[in-house]
Amino acid sequence: MYDAASPRSDSPQRKFFRVTDNIPEETWYWLALASIGVSATLKLADKSDWALFVGQWPPTFILFGLYHRLIHPSTKP
After folding, report:
1. Would you give the distance in Å from CA 45 to the centre of its chain?
2. Where do the domains of the chain lie?
3. 40: Cβ contacts below 8 Å, ≥ 6 apart
4. Contacts of 59 (CB under 8 A, 6+ apart)
5. For 72, how many CA atoms within 13 A lie in the half-sphere containing its CB?
6. Global confidence as pTM
7. Digits of tens for pLDDT over the chain (77 positions)?
8. CA–CA separation, 1 vs 10, rounded Å?
9. What DSSP state is assigned to residue 8?
10. The dihedral of CA 4, 10, 11, 14: what is its sign?
Protein backbone atom coordinates (compact mmCIF):
# COMPACT_ATOMS: atom_id res chain seq x y z
CA MET A 1 0.00 0.00 0.00
CA TYR A 2 0.97 3.66 -0.10
CA ASP A 3 3.60 4.84 2.37
CA ALA A 4 4.17 8.61 2.61
CA ALA A 5 7.81 8.05 3.54
CA SER A 6 8.38 5.82 0.53
CA PRO A 7 10.57 7.17 -2.27
CA ARG A 8 7.87 5.94 -4.68
CA SER A 9 5.37 8.46 -3.28
CA ASP A 10 5.69 10.47 -6.50
CA SER A 11 4.87 7.53 -8.77
CA PRO A 12 2.90 8.01 -12.00
CA GLN A 13 -0.14 6.53 -10.28
CA ARG A 14 0.05 9.14 -7.51
CA LYS A 15 0.43 11.91 -10.11
CA PHE A 16 -2.62 10.57 -11.97
CA PHE A 17 -4.73 10.54 -8.80
CA ARG A 18 -3.51 13.99 -7.79
CA VAL A 19 -4.98 15.34 -11.04
CA THR A 20 -8.07 13.15 -11.32
CA ASP A 21 -9.22 13.38 -7.70
CA ASN A 22 -10.62 16.82 -8.49
CA ILE A 23 -12.49 15.63 -11.60
CA PRO A 24 -16.03 14.33 -10.97
CA GLU A 25 -16.46 10.73 -12.08
CA GLU A 26 -19.29 11.60 -14.46
CA THR A 27 -16.97 13.90 -16.40
CA TRP A 28 -15.16 10.94 -17.95
CA TYR A 29 -18.44 9.50 -19.27
CA TRP A 30 -19.61 12.87 -20.59
CA LEU A 31 -16.28 13.28 -22.37
CA ALA A 32 -16.77 9.86 -23.97
CA LEU A 33 -20.25 10.81 -25.18
CA ALA A 34 -19.03 14.19 -26.42
CA SER A 35 -16.21 12.61 -28.40
CA ILE A 36 -18.71 10.22 -30.04
CA GLY A 37 -20.78 13.25 -31.05
CA VAL A 38 -17.74 15.13 -32.36
CA SER A 39 -16.66 12.05 -34.29
CA ALA A 40 -20.12 11.73 -35.89
CA THR A 41 -20.12 15.43 -36.76
CA LEU A 42 -16.69 15.15 -38.36
CA LYS A 43 -17.84 12.12 -40.36
CA LEU A 44 -20.86 14.07 -41.62
CA ALA A 45 -18.52 16.95 -42.53
CA ASP A 46 -16.59 14.46 -44.72
CA LYS A 47 -13.49 14.57 -42.52
CA SER A 48 -13.15 10.81 -42.15
CA ASP A 49 -9.56 10.76 -40.91
CA TRP A 50 -10.33 13.15 -38.08
CA ALA A 51 -13.58 11.30 -37.33
CA LEU A 52 -11.66 8.05 -36.89
CA PHE A 53 -9.05 9.77 -34.73
CA VAL A 54 -11.61 11.36 -32.39
CA GLY A 55 -13.72 8.19 -32.50
CA GLN A 56 -10.95 6.32 -30.70
CA TRP A 57 -11.14 8.57 -27.64
CA PRO A 58 -14.32 7.22 -25.92
CA PRO A 59 -12.77 3.95 -24.73
CA THR A 60 -9.86 5.89 -23.25
CA PHE A 61 -12.16 8.23 -21.32
CA ILE A 62 -14.26 5.32 -20.08
CA LEU A 63 -11.14 3.43 -19.00
CA PHE A 64 -9.88 6.48 -17.10
CA GLY A 65 -13.22 6.61 -15.26
CA LEU A 66 -13.26 2.88 -14.53
CA TYR A 67 -9.60 2.82 -13.50
CA HIS A 68 -10.16 5.65 -11.11
CA ARG A 69 -13.26 3.99 -9.66
CA LEU A 70 -11.67 0.55 -9.26
CA ILE A 71 -8.20 1.49 -8.06
CA HIS A 72 -9.05 4.58 -6.04
CA PRO A 73 -12.67 4.26 -4.87
CA SER A 74 -14.26 7.33 -3.38
CA THR A 75 -15.15 7.54 0.27
CA LYS A 76 -18.77 8.30 -0.61
CA PRO A 77 -21.29 5.51 0.04
Report:
1. 26
2. 24-77
3. 51
4. 32
5. 18
6. 0.69
7. 445 455 556 788 788 778 877 888 789 999 999 999 999 999 999 999 999 999 999 999 999 888 878 876 665 54
8. 14
9. G
10. positive
